[in-house]
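User: Fold both of these, please.

Assistant: Here is the first one.
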Amino acid sequence: MLQSLALWNPSFTAAMQTELETGDSPFTIFNFSNVDSNNYPSTRSCVLRGFLFDQEKTNVLVFTTDKRSSKYKDLLLNPRFDACFYFHKLKKQFRFRGTVRMISDDLTPVIAYENPSAINEQSNDRADSDTSSVDDESQSLISQYLSLSNNEGSCQITEPLHYKLFSPSFIKSFEDSSVSLSDLGHRMTKTESVSKTPTAEEWENERLRVWNALSRNMRKSYKKPLPGSPLTEENRKLLDAINRGVDGNNSSTGYENFVVICMFVDLVDEVVLGGSGYDRRYLYRRTHNDTWKEHEVCP
């Protein structure tokens, strides 16, 4: 099957749209946490820029950063993240955990999507143990979410990411064909699937799409002096010139510093605060074969 909405996605998207339609802000603000180079937690408020390739079915959330920022450098060393959204109108909180990949002038994600049937064969043992007991499975899921990391071992930004993510051009051509979606997994071989993942050109087009969607003032921020550098008189003058749009001698457009951060989610914790005193909580986990499992747990 082609990529489809994760179990958490409809609830999250609906909450986000409700907040944008009825709230005072035109943006979705969230808290993004990662670990810095000194192994300290680092949290920032960020602006969500939607879904990767402007497609909800990718289930990949994106936001932006400056290539010169400490956040970018920290994520190069450790791409694991935790992100928290709170929607006031519906009183819902979503926590996302997974790993990021970034799109910059010299870095693009490497997707290693495998044949779903092959993944199913490799994960039979795990599937059997997962379904042995609903209580045991729920407890295992809670333990995974509360643990320091969902993935054991190394986690490098350049490692291939096993995720069901197809090339936008492939999806379009496939949808225009007469082949049944349900036959896709059976027809694709592992060798064939490599060409179905996003190309370098499509990654760059996505970076440009997000860039063009930014406001003019936001794009200006990427031309400013090195983030965190001393506010010298020279930097003060440059900031003033950029803000007034009179930095004609500055050859930088800012695009060279522009980075799109893609959040590939593995675990989701949704909490719904009930007005009648009955709160609810759901945990979602992405499995090896890129399906999602949902469990309702005590809030």
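And the second sequence with its predicted structure:
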Amino acid sequence: MTLKLYFDFLSQPSRALFIFLKLNKIPFEACSVALRNGVHLTDEFKTKFNRFQKVPFIHDREFKLSESVAIIRYLAREYNLDNKWYPKDSKKQAQVDEYLEWQHNNTRAFCALYFQKKWLFPLLTGEPPVPEQLQKFEDNMISTFNNIENIWLADTPFLSGNEVSVADIFAACEIEQPRIAGFEPRQGRPKLAAWLDRVRNEANPYYDEAHTILNKMAKKGGQAKL
């Protein structure tokens, strides 16, 4: 086995890549990186593992690659994937890529910022969030959820059409994250809630495996500890 995935299950794209690899039966060595211990911030980690000092990333023999969407496309080429998760058909692939590009300044950005400002940074610093700032982050996140509810899922059961794809995995992993901070994305959004259930069913048992820690923390209603 030559492919190594470095990840932390509290990282949204880490979960997405883990699920994608499992679903596509791509053999890999799972290398857990405990971000809470700060090992990724050392000079040794930067030199030896990942110059950006973040997860996820992969080592494929001597080849190193970060950025989760780039990794998906690399794996699709290297393993000659042609299925619903990342199709070769030009138009179907473009529809998947449309969401993967859109997410950077929407789902990915706003869910992560809300989670960080509401839960992570206060936990690390002991300082509560500024209410006015937190409300701005929450409003942006809610706007993204509404766009997924009313635009992306307006006419199709999945983000890129009638079949599930890696776009749905990436989106679902991001949308699950605010639950740790006590925010429930499903509330008042029946299409989004039903879609999350469909994605989970399509991606199980690996979806539940990747979200085991998150689900335990979410049950504590924003009172979870690292």
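Strands lie at 3-7, 29-32, 57-60, 63-66.
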